Amino acid sequence: MNRHLTHEQLCDLLLAKPTPDTSESSGYIELLREHLRDCHLCSAEFASLSHSLATFRSTADAWATREWTRGPASLPPLHSVPARTASASRAFTSPVLWAAAAALVVAVTLPLTLHRGQPAATKTPAPGAVATQPGTSQSDEALLEEIDQTLSSPIPSPMQPLDDPTAGRHNQPDTQRKN
Amino acid sequence: MSTDAIAPNLIPDMQPASAATPFDDLETIVAAHQQRIFRFLLASLREPDLAHTLTQETFLRAWTTRSSFRGDCSIATWLTRIALNLLRDHTRTNRFRFWRRVSASSVDASSIALLLPHPDSPPDSRLIASEQMALIWQTVSSLSPRQRTVFLLRFVDEMELPEIADTTGLPLSTVKSHLYRALGAIRARHNTSTRESL
């Protein structure tokens, strides 16, 4: 192997177990390791990268240990909320959520309160209330009577001759009108 | 948080299942795995409080669904799978971040890099190492969620590739290609920072 390692080959080395195993890939990995022994450039990059990855793991481990020792800031015990997830219970302790809930309650109840406070005259009348008003019942009867008359008339109203506004004042014969 | 912080809270309110499972002895399992699960979640989320919450939820879910554990994978793999599902659920409901005020508690990459162990190294090389580490953390956070998960399972949890495939439900070849891409991104940033520091 004369050229430098490809990215995949370098990755395969980084992902390989540190100790040689008996799997099929062990021959391939051993070949790559042999290249590392000969190529200083690949060897230096591999060493630098694997060191950084090891250090990355160390920082992750150190950080986790520190945060684990500190413990959560405000986590309720699980036994108090067995049926609910812990995150959901944390959400209920949020002041923002309480403020939003209060605003929602006000937004719902305020229009209802104002609506109840309005005078009775502006309310929509119930169907039964219409029949109890005497003036309204009289006009309804008159309207029905007019409809009956219209329906019972022999000539429909659109076919009836128009009223002559000059009737009785001019006495012109039909022949003149035709001309 | 002590190692037995979760189990005593969890056990008294719940009755054991009819069929015996390894999770009946939850206290032992919690003690053995909780810090590893927490470390994975913390590295994935970079939010300590949320990592604590999801660690608790992982064991809560493991307990409630313990009857579905058939023993066809290790307990560690099964727990990591649960943690991974919770992580995905969290990512899906990320739009609710505003309510949780999570962004404020997110830890900066440079502050994580300060945790770098410095055994007897000179200050200038410590600084370079810290800067390189911050770059790696930044690069990891810029990876796609799947690439990041696979990368963290390999290089933080030190899982073998078949175990990662089993945990994530991805084919082994896909796990490998995710790792190649993740390492490609890290290698590029790493080489740039190394050249700049010279």
Topology summary:
The complex is a heterodimer of chains A (179) and B (198).
Chain A: H1 7-15, H2 26-38, H3 40-70, H4 86-92, H5 95-117, H6 127-131, H7 134-152, H8 174-178
Helix pairs in contact in A: 2-3
Chain B: H1 7-10, H2 26-45, H3 48-64, H4 75-92, H5 97-100, H6 102-105, H7 109-113, H8 123-142, H9 145-155, H10 161-168, H11 172-197
Helix pairs in contact in B: 2-3, 2-4, 3-4, 4-10, 8-11, 9-11, 10-11
Describe the protein in words.
The complex is a heterodimer of chains A (179) and B (198). Chain A is an all-alpha fold and 179 residues long. Chain A has 8 helices and no strands. In chain A, α2 crosses α3. Chain A starts with 6 loop residues before the first helix and ends with a helix. The relative contact order of chain A is 0.04. Chain B is mainly alpha-helical. At the A-B interface, α1, α3 and α4 of A face α2, α3, α8, α9 and α11 of B.
The biggest beta sheet of chain A is recorded as:
none
Roughly how many Å is the radius of gyration of chain A? 49 Å
Largest interface: A-B, 45 and 55 residues
Number of strands of chain B: 0
Proportion of residues in extended strands of chain B: under 5%
The first-to-last residue Cα distance of chain A is 121 Å
Number of helices of chain A: 8
Determine the number of helices of chain B (DSSP H or I, runs of at least 4 residues): 11
Which term fits the overall shape of chain A?
Answer: elongated
Give, in order, the helices and strands of chain A. HHHHHHHH
Mean pLDDT of chain A: 71
Q: Report the uncertain regions of chain A.
A: 77-89, 128-132, 175-179
Listing every helix as H and every strand as E from the N terminus to the C terminus, the arrangement of chain B reads HHHHHHHHHHH
- Which geometry of chain B do the CA atoms define? globular
- Estimate the helix proportion of chain A, in percent: 55-70%
Count of DSSP strands of chain A: 0
Average predicted confidence as pLDDT of chain B: 81
